[in-house]
Amino acid sequence: PLDGSLYRRGCRDEAPSGDLNALHLNGVVMLRRADFLGVVGYDERMSDYGFDDTDLYARLSTRNISYQCLRFDLMTHMSIKHADRGLSRLSHIIHRHAAG
To answer: What is the mean pLDDT of the chain?
Structure first.
């Protein structure tokens, strides 16, 4: 269980060098809903790929919420193309337009 002073996240900096699984799983996070809302969640103004997780982690740390690293050996990143997930180029454009 998570308490108010702890969340769990991917920690690619602590993974072995060259671990592509860890690279892609850095954004995996488990935290209490109240903590997520307390930092106003993800910054929706960030429209490019990446750093939204790092930004969230930084804002959680300003509230003195510490973290534990998740074990990458218990998770696997599945590299699936957008088309294989049913996402077209058009849906990607619409998503970027709505976010930005």
So the answer is: 79
Enumerate residues 6+ apart whose C-beta is below 8 A from 66: 5, 6, 7
The confidence score (pLDDT) of residue 35 equals: 92
Take residue 64 and report the two structure tokens written for it.
């003195």
Q: In terms of pLDDT, which residue wins out, 8 or 95?
A: 8
Contact in structure between 59 and 31 (CB atoms under 8 Å): no
d(CA 72, CA 53): 16
The answer to whether residues 8 and 2 touch, using CB atoms and an 8 Å cutoff, is yes
User: What is the chain written as a DSSP string?
Assistant: ---TTEEEE--GGGSPTT-HHHHHHTT-EE--HHHHHHTTSS-TT--SSSSHHHHHHHHHHTTT-EEEE--GGG-------TGGGT--HHHHHHHHHHH-
For residue range 36-50, list pLDDT tens digits in order.
Answer: 999 998 888 877 767
